[in-house]
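Hi R.,

Here are the chain sequences for the assembly we discussed:
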Amino acid sequence: MTIALHQDPAAIEEGRAALAGMGEISPSMVYAALLTDDGFEIVHVTRIQTDATRFASMSSSIQALSDAVGHELRIGASDYVIIGSAQGHVIQMRVPGRPVVLAALFQSHETLGKALSTTRVTAERISHRFAASSVPAMAAPNF
Amino acid sequence: MAEHVILFAGPMGAGKTTAIRSLSEIDVVSTEAANSERHVVDKATTTVALDYGEITLGAEDKVRLYGVPGQKRFDFMWSILKKRARGMIMLINDDAPDAVQTMIDYLDDFSELYDQGGVVIGVSRTDLGVGPGLQAYTAALAEQRPQFIAPVFGVDPRDENHMRTVLMTLIANIEMRAMLAPAAEAAAP
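And here is the predicted structure of the full complex:
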């Protein structure tokens, strides 16, 4: 039986290393999580108190809703989602080639450009790390 | 034109998305993701936010159909969508583990919808003959939740006629209760 991605030790380890690297690139990042498309947390790093399981489920819903909006408007699946607020911004995007979402919270003083760039670079690194460590691919739905 | 917002709830694999696709006159908005729990329910994808469809009944009634994710970890979506709905079609797959208790648990989670309008229960996959069967659900309702008067149907969510019958029953139930509500309020001490 294939092990679920969120329970795969290699995925968890590679994800943890990538998220730690993300925090080094951008110290304004206070929370980052890697989750499956259907809302299971693979791993997270944090400097705040939050319910990681619930956040993973919410990120999954938001990702799917943003894709649905993209399809409705015929602009394709969303590349990334930004939630801006006075006290910080959340950026999330899919890890290329995987049914996995990277979601991160940055402090409000961080520029959106840098936050977006950091998230994108990390998502690409995770994709490469998963491939290099033979984390099995799971077919992503194609709608 | 009257508008109704109806929720489809129940466990993963009961057929909520399929039922909405059977009924909807518009392209259904779906939020499906690859299913990590193939060992629990063996299907490729699962709803992670909502399904949305629409149907017009008669000349007047527009019905908005919302499906919620079946898994408890998405209960924040339940809370959001419950507020808008006036009734619920609960789908339970008869071959689910402990299906009757699952129905009771979901009824408790969505009990506001009974108060807001009404609930109809659709039991799917009874044709497999591996579950407790329709009578067990009716009996459990009467015994464990006598305050819920909810019709129980055997349904195939792929069958538009089945789902239309269930939906019409729910709408009639909601409208009847709305009509009787002023009289009930007047009679209250």
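Residues 160-187 of chain B form the longest helix (28 residues). Chain B has a mean pLDDT of 93.

Let me know if anything looks off.

Best,
T.
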